């Protein structure tokens, strides 16, 4: 089979059972490995859907400039699509995100604007958004997808990721958990899986230093892509049954084990998700099935503690 371009190859990522990391008396844990997605993360799906819908609605054309505030993977996804479709793309990101992310965005031919993170990622993301909106005010060609409030973000997961999961698992899914950046993943996948099985237990997962849904304070943490310090508009706050908090050490330790015990080269938030999934699997017990996602690949974390001994 030949794809017309790389965008046609987005999605259809594998679902993989955890073996050595999981306790045989627990529920089975299945992980959807988005590190193997085009662009190396789950966010290529949402970037693509937001731009496709903007094209359909006539909000963008070949002269448009895409400008988006993002802590990383969404920017990489938009830059990739910009490269294929010929859109000029400007990604506005906190200077605290890994250097690899900036380099990847630039490598796809997009421009990077860095905003200084003074220790509060939420404030910094707000500043990134202000910068993007100012660009749009000054230049009518600028389109800001606004992933934190764009319904076409969770829609990508309702229409694609969730359906792939159901097709891959076939049998009943008893547990699902996910960290929250924009909330697109947990909202889109959670809604579809819960409609299929109302007894499904969903856990929202937060970094210890950014557990704002649980009423905690916002600080710096290492679980990039989640815990951005804002409660996103598109997050369906009715969809989760429980909030589970993961420390940076636990996320990194789990991500390291995913590589060394399961051969899954994934990022820090994958460690977050799996730390929660293993706990949920223990709670639900043998014979049940827990699903989570590994949002991205490890190869954009070389400069972070994930690769320190
Ligand atoms: N992990 C990583 C590495 C991410 O880049 C993102 C996206 N910000 C997420 C998790 C969370 O995904 P979502 O935005 O759908 O909540």
Automatic annotation (TrEMBL):
Keyword check for Zinc: no
GO MF annotations in UniProt: cysteine synthase activity
Pfam families, sorted: PALP (PF00291)
Span of domain Tryptophan synthase beta chain-like PALP: 8-296
Cofactor: pyridoxal 5'-phosphate
InterPro entries according to UniProt: Cys_synth, Cys_Synth/Cystath_Beta-Synth, CysK, TrpB-like_PALP, TrpB-like_PALP_sf
Top class in the EC scheme: transferase
Keywords carried by this UniProt record: Pyridoxal phosphate, Transferase
This enzyme's EC code(s): 2.5.1.47
Pathway(s) the chain acts in: Amino-acid biosynthesis; L-cysteine biosynthesis; L-cysteine from L-serine: step 2/2
Protein name per UniProt: Cysteine synthase A
Organism encoding this protein: Anaerovorax odorimutans
Protein's gene: cysK
